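Q: My labmate handed me this sequence with no annotations at all. I'd like to see what the chain might look like in three dimensions before we decide whether it's worth expressing. Could you predict it?
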Amino acid sequence: MLDTLPGEKLLYSRWQEQHALLAKLLSGSRRIAMQYSPDCAIPYIAMVDAGTVELVRKQGIEVVSSAELVQLFESALSVRQFETHLEAGRRVDRIRAGAFRFIGERLSAGVDEIIVRDWILREFESAGLVTDSGPIVAVNSHAGNPHYEPSRDTNRAIRPGDFVLLDMWARLDEPGSIFYDITWTGFCGDAPERIQQVFQVVRDARDEAVRTVEQAVASAMDIRGYQVDDAARGHIERRGFGDRFVHRTGHSIGTDVHGTGANMDNLETHDERRIVPGALFSVEPGIYLEDFGVRSEVDVFVRDGMASVTGEMQQELVRIG
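A: Here is what I predict for the chain of 321 residues:
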């Protein structure tokens, strides 16, 4: 299994030989980075078992987390990878706008969540896009469940006076391409003031998180995943909806829609990883109520001295129909 990897291969059979060869391997080293996360704060990194960490420490070695190194090798996009993300974004944004028009055109004839989902998937295929799951098409109370996906058992018709959430993610159908991931919301007709107000709180929380990243990067200051989550969550909490924001603010994006870099998270985990140049991640705060839920999602890319949103940003609820 190790033949394809660079470096010397040390063979052993007795456990005593294993320990002796480990001492040889670590000789001259004081600090070793392993897939270890103190207090298991970042479970995605905590892949090495506690016993192996103990074994290394017995050699007088300080074990530190490899979380930052993983980002540099797996989550810093190349120029070509970023270009594939931008192109996927242009295609997905076009399909997203078309999906809202499709719903509006079908309101009188009849349309439901699965019809819209399947239309989007056909458009993805025609546009040379692939996805691993989804998209999410959620109506009214279904949008109040952040993990909802339409099925034959839950499928709901879309009618005038309904709230609609579309969450879609896709990448170009080519090796090494990078996902684009967005969520937009709309209303079939004129949205009530209550829905408008909740949308505005979510939108402004999204913008506060993006602004926090932009300002830190422009000032050459370290910015960590949990701090971005704090910015969005703090805005929502100050407006009285803190208990209705039930997931992290964002996630790393790569060749998988959920990548291996820093997540914008101080809820599910306390992600202390720095946001490094080349990082791509989502910002997607949400408020989830019994009868509807609003999420507004954009993707943010960081390079030396600058951070920016990579696609279109929703500023107002889409008026459907």
